[in-house]
Amino acid sequence: MTRPASLTRRPLWLCAAFAVAVAAGPAGCSHDHSPRTHLQSHVQRPESAVVLISVDGLNVTTLDDMLAAGELPAIRRLIDEGVRVETAVSGYPTITYAQFTSIQTGLYAGHHGILGNKWFDRHQLRFRGYNTMYTYRDVDGDFLAPTLYERLPDQVTVSIQNAIRRGVTRTIDNWASSGIRWFFGLFLDVDRLMPTRFEVVRDVANETGQWPALIHAYHPAVDEVGHRHGPRSAPYRRAVRNADRQVARIRGALDAAEMADRTYLVLLSDHGFESVDNHFHVPDWLRRERGLRVADRPYDNEWFEQRHRHLSRFDAVVINGGNRRAVIHLPGPAGWFERPTPDAVRNLLQTDPTTGRPGLIDHPGVELVARPIDADGDERVIELLSRTGRSQIRRRWHEGAKLYHFERIEGDALGDWTNPALERVIAEGWHDGDMWLTATIDSLYPDLVVQMVEMFDTPRAGDIVLFAEDGWDFGSRTRGGHGSITRSDMVVPMVFVGPGIPAGRTIPCARLVDVAPTLLHLVRGRPLSPGEPPFDGTDRTPELRQP
Q: What is the DSSP string of 524-535?
């Protein structure tokens, strides 16, 4: 367990609140008891229910190492009793708020518009950030796509500790208990509280007369420990073992509620994790090497005039999300309401011809640079640049379906990322998203061709997007990060267990955007009906039942 900072350095009122919260919490810091979830006789149990167990920042390599060592009995039991996706991929960007919104909506981040824990919108001049206790719940007002909760209006639903909760019947935020523990660095205790909150779920069921059809149980500790210590560290492994124990306790809660035989358990994460040894602070580089005035802290005044006045003082807005992705927004000749000129972009990316100073693309911490370029007819075109070359990805519609194309222009921006099978796919030209997912799933950049284009469907994606090399991030102090495009950031665990799902099987690949249509089918017992808002993702229920 991470030790808290000295209480003598905290305000007296906060120390008192902490003591009260711990004392009032279930069994204090040692609340590992089995949740008491016996239901009253009048409570109706749905024919099908889903409990989504999300462990933020769970690195697949560390997970598999610990499974092989026998350290994770509860997760091993899930895998043995259900279907694991062999390679499940997150979305771009691989950042928490972006991906949990995708899990809830079934849309890519470029379509729901939540591009991470921070984003900038040049049309509204909004620089939003969700990383404070005052703003972490603002996300629900910043996207329009329906959530799973809103698609189940006649069902009882519960969200435990997750910020994306619009339309849910009951939210359990744990502010006094979790928030204060978090402030004092007791991160593992926050995850230990999660199963105990199923006693609140019991109360909701007794009050409404219905056990919830959908419960999302969000575990944040692994991610926080990963940032502080890295995904290969002993503290990180302790956090994963702790999460495993909470999986077992949640299953115990379902047993006590007599819901185990009709509940689908889904275990997943929102992104992977990469160890970090080197740091590249992009705003400082822009100030030092190009003399730009850079805004890199959220500013979202209620009044448009105030936002306009504030941003008029800056030459660039920089978003650092997850620490391994950095987004640069530049104003056009007439201000923020238009895109920058190609020369303005090239000035930052390439060597300065006047001074000889290198550009962003030359920095060893930058794996890849992506930028949108003018569309060619009905095609969207994204340019990829690196020290090894320049490539393009194109997307177009053909007979109602999206097709994607990858082309090397000079060298190859992705370097040596292919295999013979992928080379054949590239040579054949245009393919749908499923083909590109299958072709790239074992590469260094899984699903890059599809995900990169989809990310740029919103202007919030930025004018220049930097992705970090393995071992690097764009922060200043962390030992682990995420947000980039390589396997360590992109590959996530995904396991399904429940009635009708065969034990010990696998399916080859899936995306996080597939979760929403799949869960909706499992809860309702039927696929999406014609006329309902569509998903970007694919309903994987048929594959789960016959993997």
A: HTS-PPTTSPP-
In angstroms and rounded to an integer, the radius of gyration of the C-alpha atoms of the chain is: 23
Closest CA to 509 of 65, 88, 58, 17: 88
**Cis amide bond preceding 73, omega within 30:** no
What pLDDT, on a 0 to 100 scale, did the predictor assign at position 33? 78
Helix (H, G, I), strand (E, B) or coil at 262: helix
Measured between alpha carbons, how far is 384 from 374 in angstroms, rounded to an integer? 14
All domains in the chain, ordered by first residue:
46-273+490-545 (3.40.720.10), 277-479 (no CATH)
* Residue carrying structure tokens 């996530």: 492
pLDDT tens readout for residues 168-200: 999 998 667 787 888 899 999 999 999 999 999
211 half-sphere exposure, CB direction, 13 A CA radius: 27
Residue 376: per-residue pLDDT: 65
Length in residues, the chain? 547
Pair 260, 250: CB distance under 8 Å:
no
The pLDDT of residue 34: 83
Residue the block writes with tokens 């960007």: 93
Distances (CA, A) of 511 to 454, 506, 508, 543: 13, 14, 11, 13
Distance CA(531)–CA(527), nearest Å, equals 12
- Kindly report the three-state secondary structure assignment for every residue of 319-377: EEECECEEEEECCECCECCCCCCHHHHHHHHCCCCCCCCCCHHHCCCEEEEEEEEEEEC
Please identify every stretch of the chain with a pLDDT value under 50, giving residue numbers as ranges: 1-10, 12-14, 16, 18-30
pTM of structure: 0.93
Question: In this structure, are residues 467 and 366 in contact, taking their beta carbons and an 8 Å threshold?
Answer: yes
Bridge partners of 459? Answer: none
Token reading at 199: 């006693």
| CA angle centred on 89, ends 525 and 164, rounded to 5° | 65
